[in-house]
Amino acid sequence: MLDLARMMRDLGQEGYVIPRPHPTLVTRRVLVMEELTGFKFDDVVAMQDAGIDTENVIRTGLIAFMEGALIHGVFHGDLHGGNLFVMHDGRTALLDFGIVGRLSSSRRIAFLRLMLGASTNDLHGQVSALRDLGALPLDSDIDAVIRDLRLDQTTIDPTTLSGEELVKEVQRIVKALLAYGAKLPKELMLYVKNMVFLDGAIARLAPNLDLLAEVATISMVFTQRHGETLGRDLGIDPSAVEFNFDSVKASLGVENSTNSLTYRELQQRRDLIQEFNFDSVKASLGVENSTNSLTYRELQQRRDLIQKRMREHVTK
């Protein structure tokens, strides 16, 4: 808790509040902190009625979370609706510090390289950074990984694939990753888990947020605020960095020519993909796409009928 508080202070991050403990009341078994009040994190209507810019709440959260991990190597490891709320002045209160993500110096720098690679469309840099984060064995052939995962090929729009094609593509990628011994280190798992929470928070608080514009804004903020750190840790001239978000677009499954993508539009694409997946599952169970429910008992009855007909056919 104190490490995160110091980190927020050092970053000059005023959009987050960590309640202060009362030294004279704290014991070995009891932690007493200052009282804070506000809105539940998903109470969008109440926040907006109070004049709070919910898009700014999201933007501040994304920047603070990433700054902590990339600049100081420390971040809250368990973001969820019960661990933070929005105060009446628009700041976010952060609670419960039982799980904290900590990155060693080498892994923090690898994380920086990963983010820089994503911002400049440097595929080799991104994959090598993932290797150094522990997601791939240290002796991995980076060029081979890129080739086998087809990262250097034109992005496939998942909404253009049939359910069967989509399943096969996912299976191909998973098989290739497993063949290379890919895994998800604890720190990366905590980071991804938090990003999943923030993804859901955007859906509720800022569905019309332009994701591509926000990525560009966050990249510029990092360059302006932390240029010295980037130069020292990565050995680059921050002013010479040329942003190219094609890798980000590829991760979202859209073409390089896409200039804007709101969260609402992204969710519509996800819903379409999920629909394709359901159709593929229905096909594997031998039912029509119009089927809306299927109990295991009904499935077993279908199987029994098929077996009966097969036996009758063999008898004939």
Task: Indicate the topology.
Blueprint lengths: L1 H10 L4 E2 L20 E3 L3 H6 L4 H19 L1 E3 L7 E4 L4 E3 L5 E3 L2 H16 L2 H10 L9 H7 L14 H17 L6 H20 L5 H24 L11 H6 L11 H23 L10 H20 L1
Parallel strand pairs: 1-5
Antiparallel strand pairs: 2-4, 3-6, 4-5
Helix pairs in contact: 1-3, 3-4, 3-8, 3-9, 4-5, 4-9, 5-6, 7-11
Strand content: 5-15%
SSE run:
HEEHHEEEEHHHHHHHHH
Low confidence ranges: none
Structural class: mainly alpha
Please tell me how large the radius of gyration is.
24 Å
Largest sheet: 4 strands, mixed
- Write down the overall geometry: globular
Structure, explained:
This protein has 316 residues and is mainly alpha-helical. Helices cover 56% and strands 6% of the residues. The strands form 2 sheets. Strands 1-5-4-2 form a 4-stranded mixed β-sheet. The chain has a two-stranded antiparallel ribbon with strand order 3-6. A hairpin with a 4-residue loop joins strand 4 (84-87) and strand 5 (92-94). It is globular. The model has no long low-confidence stretch (mean pLDDT 85).
